[in-house]
Specification:
Number of helices: 21
Radius of gyration: 23 Å
Structural class: alpha/beta
Helix content: 25-40%
Number of strands: 21
CATH superfamily of the largest domain: Carbamoyltransferase, C-terminal domain
CATH topology of the largest domain: DHBP synthase
Largest sheet: 9 strands, mixed
Strand content: 15-25%
CATH class of the largest domain: Alpha Beta
Strand order of the largest sheet: 13-21-20-14-15-19-16-18-17
CATH architecture of the largest domain: Alpha-Beta Complex
Length: 615
Amino acid sequence: MYILGVSALYHDAAAALIKDGEIIAAAQEERFTRIKHDSSIPKYAIAYCLQESRINGHELDAVVYYDNPLLTMGRFVQNIQYVGNDCRSLLDFSLESLVSKKMWIHQILKQSLGQLGKEDKLFVAEHHISHAASAFFPSPYRKAAIITVDGVGEYATTTIGYGENNHIKILKEIDYPHSLGLLYSAFTYFCGFKVNSGDYKLMGLAPYGKPIYVQLIKEKLISIKLDGSFRLNIEYFDYQYGRAMVNEKFAQLFGGKKREPESIITQREMDIAASVQKVIEDVMILLAQHAKKVVSEDIENLVIAGGVALNCVANGVLCRKKIFKNIWVQPAAGDAGGALGAAMFYYYQYCDGERIVDEVNDKQNASYLGPEYSNEYIEAYLKDKGYSYYKHDGYEKLYQKIAELLDQGKVIGLFEGRMEYGPRALGNRSIIGDPRSSEMQSKLNLKIKYRESFRPFAPSVLEERAKEYFEIDYKSPYMLFCADVQETRRKGFCLEKEIESTNENLLPVVSKARSDIPAVTHVDYSARIQTVNERDNPIYYGIIKAFERLTGCGVIINTSFNVRGEPIVCTPQDAYQCFMRTEMDVLVLGNYILYKEEQIPMEKSDNWRNEYELD
């Protein structure tokens, strides 16, 4: 049974294909169109999924959309009634998309898929059901509590549920306009970052500040109960009107207007980020505690999805609280993952498909679910373009060479195997570097990623060595949990004094060594960890192992292979373009190594992403 799941028309459109419950392929549309967070119908992602399985649309048994447009229309009408005469912006913002696209999703999908056969192949699943299914069904657990938290689905913004075998059930729900995701996005917007794409920046900024606004937020903006339920004070927000996220009343709470994008980040923004991060953590702890009570005090497993589940700092706090013995977070926790959840919900719950688990290994295939390009394809591409390259026939020689280059301080674009599904690069579409360099974080941010200097980078660590470097007693293969660097590895560092001495210029602060792996140690000694094992990714594991043999360090820097404002690279063409338009030193494409100094310089242009056609 082939089932295609689709998410689209909000943000991060994606497609996922499963066969008898097994994930065959999944990818975000942005990777093919090169439009960040592309929300359009994922025709390229759908085509890839069908190509990967070698079937056509006619052979699909079901196509499932991750949202119910009729319920969304109901919420929209209620919102119109709430805002009354002040509804013009809301109508301009949402009406055309809802009426001309979302309400006709079945017809649009049929056109995109071509020959589908019977009309009864097209289904919808509710938004938070899709999130819950994406969290539970690929997880290793036969039984688990489920938490989903995001901006908004049709009505729901937060749910608590229960999964057992091949069925899930939503037990508790919080509805729009009360939303933890929209609260966080409001602060993202107020601090001068883009909603949806800037939430990571706010999380990365939080350790630089003090949570001095926590009480103010809880008194004025959000009322939180002991069971984790909450209500926002809508008087301070503007999103319900389809305008900006917050209003003037919100700004007055925090001493003035929002920070303008690209302007200097002040102590106010640092403290605001720290404060809202603490509020998110407090609510997630209460929700987890209540989920255990609602489901069963004996339940040991928790699974999480929804955009807020990508807050790896909050996930790390939940792990340390030990409310549940095990926590599994969907790697594509945001809307992209809804495509997978919709397909899995249909197969397991609607069709009563058999689900087999072992309580240890998940069914996500390490989230390496996107396109793969053979060495033959890569070599043909390099020859056709006339690029200078070196071929390494043996993997051990390749690993050793990459390790030597890392030890020399080179920044390397790494392109191997299947592309990752979800927002994290996990070693197949990554930029890697030496974590021992105190200058590497600022170098990568300013010269490679072209982004804010304060943003941290993740460590990829050999799974068997993780405890030697970090205070972690669990696996973190998807880079979704934060933990602190081991105290024995830390160096003396006073953040407050450093910031005061530099007049809020964060670049000198970032360059201060805080441990013996400074490039992956954030200012609060935390790190967003990826544990790597040989079974899931033998090539990436082999590279880190070779680096350890050479240097004694079983950790390397891992950041996504892209620049600011661009999606992660998908094809060898994408990788080469990104390599040439940044100050990366080396590009590894499969078994081929390219050196920047041997390439013919490319002319920079704003439309370079369109220099080749999608296959």
